[in-house]
Write a structure and sequence with these properties.
The complex is a heterodimer of chains A (89) and B (410). Chain A is α+β, with helices and mostly antiparallel strands and 89 residues long. Chain A contains 2 helices and 6 strands, in the order ββαββαββ. Chain A has a single domain, classed as Alpha-Beta Plaits (2-Layer Sandwich), CATH 3.30.70.20. With 410 residues, chain B is an alpha/beta fold. Classes of the chains: A alpha+beta (89), B alpha/beta (410).
Chain lengths: 89, 410
């Protein structure tokens, strides 16, 4: 899809290597922020962005998956280092 | 009679999240998930969003959990079953038709009902509510032929629907009782900004207006307002709030006010019975008041916390509720307790001229709530200021300065 923003994740021991926010799908419901507020925040356009300073590495894997699962539009995609999609399955 | 260690009434985000969380903490305990709708978890939020509503994305993108997920997690999905009776001594739940199931621990995550529009002729074909998936399907079908629509109410359903109906090419008139849009929650400055956005979308606004009668023989043909004005239309969407009688729970001895009453652990007055989601009227330990919230994020978090408490953890629900909506080129966000009660000091941050405006509600030394128009980038920070009870006394002039970085207060 056209309007996807990718964030590299380099957290030690993490299975998740990349976080993708699909800005076409994101509606700013902000449930991901409720679950993982250290990683996600809203931008001025009411779409989610990953917190610039270390946000991609801030949450543990479980929290990140929970945050993605909580999204009512499945706008957060998680990938492992080999490029396999972890969520949504 | 089948008995579940954990029985959840309600298959929305609160109930489904609770089921998932219970399974994480109790791998073997039996879980039954009752849902009045036949559907597995879907995104209720998406029902009133352009992608889904205008059929720009596949219908199936609405599903968040499928049957396979419930099976894999060993959760018995009891779809299409309406709970009508509860016996908290025998610990049984009765369905419409008389079937019963037993429970060890019960979670009431029933959601709420769309408030019924009590107007002569409101039963006519073409009067819609947007509550569940089947409602959305009916409206999506109706807009294919309808030319003129009326929305009733000035809250988020009517706001989103007015925008969507315009996007679908209909003429739209918004009819509401209030002096300005969203008067129950927003101040006049914010409400007028929302109205200006709707007008830019071509929505005709009828303020301080009530419908006297719905016209039409069988099918909606228009309305007559109490001031005598007639407005033709071929469909009406009501968004006038949520309400549930909860009589079946009252009869079972569950304490009910506007919602199902619960403490900060989301326990009801009856042992082994919890409440979560839109239906719960709970002790908010941040606001120090009993409140009821109606939004996805709150329901998700309550489902999780209720499940933790049902599986033996003792964890209070401590959460600053917030939600956002967008449409007609404007974004609106609410955080915390936004009721304009007399003891609130109101701080204005930004202005309509700048097209960016926040209203901050302060009680004593701390922030309790905020409404944000076109300024959602500050939502997270404001939520954290509320949650952490940050002392803002002596800093009110800073709060009012739109160029002051609120993050520095954290």
């Amino acid at each position: 899809m056209a309007n996807q923003v990718e964030y590299k994740r380099t957290k030690a021991g993490s299975k998740i290597a990349k976080i993708v926010v699909d800005k076409d799908l994101c509606i700013g419901a902000a449930s991901c922020i409720a679950v993982a507020g250290t990683t996600f925040e809203l931008g001025a356009d009411n779409k989610v962005v990953v917190v610039a300073s270390g946000g991609a590495d801030a949450a543990d894997d479980e929290t990140l998956i929970l945050a993605a699962e909580s999204c009512p539009t499945k706008a957060i995609l998680l990938f492992d280092a080999a490029g396999n999609q972890i969520y949504p399955k | 009679m089948e008995t579940f260690k954990y029985l959840i009434v309600g298959g929305g985000v609160a109930g489904a999240t609770a089921a998932e969380t219970i399974r994480e903490h109790d791998p073997a305990g039996t879980i039954g998930l009752v849902n009045e709708e036949p559907y597995t978890l879907y995104s209720r939020v998406m029902l009133s969003k352009p992608g889904f509503f205008l059929e720009k994305i596949p219908f199936d993108s609405i599903w968040l959990k499928n049957q396979e997920w419930y099976q894999k997690n060993n959760i018995t999905f009891l779809g299409g079953k309406k709970a009508v009776g509860l016996d908290t001594k025998e610990k049984t739940l009765t369905f419409e038709g008389g079937d019963k199931v037993g429970y060890g621990k019960l979670l009431l995550a029933t959601g709420v009902c769309a408030r019924t529009w009590e107007v002569e002729g409101a039963e006519k074909q073409g009067v819609y509510y947007l509550h569940a998936l089947d409602d959305a399907k009916k409206i999506i079908a109706a807009i294919k032929t309808a030319k003129k629509a009326i929305t009733i109410g000035s809250g988020f359903i009517s706001f989103e629907m007015s925008d969507l109906l315009r996007m679908a090419g209909l003429e739209v008139t918004a009819v509401y009782l209030e002096d300005y849009y969203w008067q129950q929650t927003l101040d006049e400055v914010s409400g007028k900004m929302v109205e200006a956005a709707l007008e830019r979308m071509g929505v005709k606004l009828m303020r301080k207006s009530a419908v006297a009668k719905v016209l039409g023989t069988g099918k909606v043909e228009g309305v007559v307002l109490k001031n005598g004005l007639s407005i033709p239309c071929d469909m009406i969407v009501c968004g006038i709030g949520a309400y549930c009688a909860f009589d079946w729970l009252k009869n079972a001895g569950i304490a009910v006010n506007r919602g199902i009453l619960a403490n900060e652990y989301l326990e009801t007055n009856v042992p082994d019975v919890w409440a979560a989601g839109d239906a719960a009227e709970f002790k908010d330990i941040i606001a120090e008041e009993v409140v009821q919230e109606g939004n996805w994020v709150n329901a998700h978090e309550q489902g999780r916390i209720a499940a933790l408490n049902m599986t033996g953890t003792k964890e209070p629900f401590k959460f600053v509720s917030f939600y956002t909506t967008q449409g007609s080129g404007i974004t609106i966000a609410f955080a915390g307790d936004v009721r304009p009660l007399p003891d609130r000091t109101i701080i204005h941050r930004g202005s309509p001229q700048a097209n960016s405006y926040v209203r901050l509600l302060v009680v004593g030394y701390e922030l309790v709530g905020a409404t944000l128009i076109n300024r959602t980038q500050e939502l997270t920070t404001i939520t954290n200021l509320i949650k952490n009870n940050v002392d803002v006394s002596g800093k009110l002039d800073k709060l009012a300065d739109p160029n002051f970085d609120l993050k520095t207060l954290l």
